[in-house]
């Protein structure tokens, strides 16, 4: 029991000593706190301000016709058509692609102020972020930081336009075979029309005429289907599901946090200095 009482009294003495130390050195502690505040203010003044732009983007997609067509000269024509939607690219693929500097054309880099390679790498590592959106199909959320509100807005618009153009090109590349097919069927349709006009006056014109009509009908359906598919491929381009928003307040540096950290660090430094100074004095007095 006696040892416990002595422990409590020693703790009480230590706390009392610290309080007395703070009272005796209040001016010094306040001086250190003020120095910490000044350093924090200088950091806020020197550090360039950063403004953030945010938006959400939905992938471009296109509809394709899955046709199973058969043609025979015995007037049989069976068509089974169905439409399916496909994304230009998966959101995860876009997120990965945006991490590579080669994704960004020179014009986009100039608008975003990314002239040098090290600045571009720093931008991709710290100044730009993209991620898929949960529970929202084929969407990506993006945010970037720039030195001014205008630059953040312009850079965000340039990146959106870049993605839209790239995804349109991806769809065009996938539809390249369809365009060639469409031209072939259109040319065949014109040739069949010309042949139809030349056989109507012959003896066997009746049978040949029916066969040509059957083939023309089949070609017409194929041309219509491919033309529809071509139009649908451009009907759903990349679009913003959440518009570009740039806050009027700088997101970096975080002024309240920096000021608070400066005050706390200055206060701690002042207390430690006084404890060290008091300890040195005691050592000198004992010797």
Helix content: 55-70%
Distance between the termini: 35 Å
Which strand-content bin applies to the residues?
Answer: 15-25%
Number of strand segments: 6
Average residue-wise pLDDT: 79
Quaternary structure classification: single chain
Shape: rod-shaped
Write down the Rg: 37 Å
Number of helices: 8
Secondary structure class reads: alpha+beta
Strand/helix succession? HHEEEHHHEEHHEH
Q: State the major sheet.
A: 4 strands, antiparallel
Main sheet strand line-up: 4-5-1-6
List segments where confidence is low: pLDDT < 50 over at least 5 consecutive residues: 8-13, 68-81
Describe this structure as you would to a colleague.
- The chain has eight helices and six strands, in the order H-H-E-E-E-H-H-H-E-E-H-H-E-H.
- The longest helix has 51 residues, at 149-199.
- A hairpin with a 3-residue loop joins strand 2 and strand 3 (76-87).
- Helix 2 packs antiparallel against helix 8 (255-286) and helix 4 (106-112) packs antiparallel against helix 6 (149-199).
- The model is unreliable at 8-13 and 68-81 (pLDDT under 50).
- The protein has a four-stranded antiparallel sheet. Strands 2-3 form a two-stranded antiparallel ribbon.
- With 287 residues, it is α+β, with helices and mostly antiparallel strands.
- The two termini are 35 Å apart.
- The protein has helices at residues 2-24, 26-46, 91-97, 106-112, 117-127, 149-199, 205-233, 255-286, and strands spanning 51-58, 61-72, 76-87, 128-132, 139-146, 239-246.
């Amino acid at each position: 029991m006696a040892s416990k009482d002595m422990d409590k009294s020693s703790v009480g003495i230590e706390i009392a000593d610290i309080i007395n130390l703070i009272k005796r050195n209040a001016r010094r502690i306040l001086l250190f706190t003020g120095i910490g505040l000044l350093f924090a203010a200088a950091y806020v003044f020197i550090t360039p301000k950063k403004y953030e732009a945010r938006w959400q983007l939905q992938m471009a997609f296109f509809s394709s016709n899955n046709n199973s067509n058969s043609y025979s000269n015995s007037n049989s024509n069976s068509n089974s058509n169905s439409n399916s939607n496909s994304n230009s690219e998966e959101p995860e693929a876009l997120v990965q692609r945006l991490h590579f500097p080669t994704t960004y054309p020179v014009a986009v880099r100039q608008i975003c102020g990314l002239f040098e390679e090290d600045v571009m790498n720093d931008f991709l590592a710290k100044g730009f972020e993209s991620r898929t959106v949960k529970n929202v199909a084929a969407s990506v959320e993006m945010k970037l930081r720039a030195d001014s509100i205008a630059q953040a807005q312009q850079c965000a618009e340039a990146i959106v336009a870049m993605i839209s153009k790239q995804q349109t090109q991806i769809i065009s590349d996938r539809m390249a075979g369809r365009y060639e097919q469409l031209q072939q069927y259109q040319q065949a349709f014109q040739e069949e029309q010309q042949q139809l006009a030349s056989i109507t006056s012959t003896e066997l014109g009746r049978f040949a005429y029916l066969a040509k009509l059957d083939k023309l009908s089949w070609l017409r359906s194929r041309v219509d289907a491919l033309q529809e598919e071509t139009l649908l491929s451009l009907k759903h381009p990349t679009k913003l599901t959440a518009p570009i928003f740039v806050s009027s307040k700088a997101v970096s540096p975080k002024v309240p946090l920096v000021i608070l950290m400066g005050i706390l660090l200055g206060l701690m430094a002042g207390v430690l200095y006084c404890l060290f100074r008091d300890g040195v004095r005691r050592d000198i007095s004992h010797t």
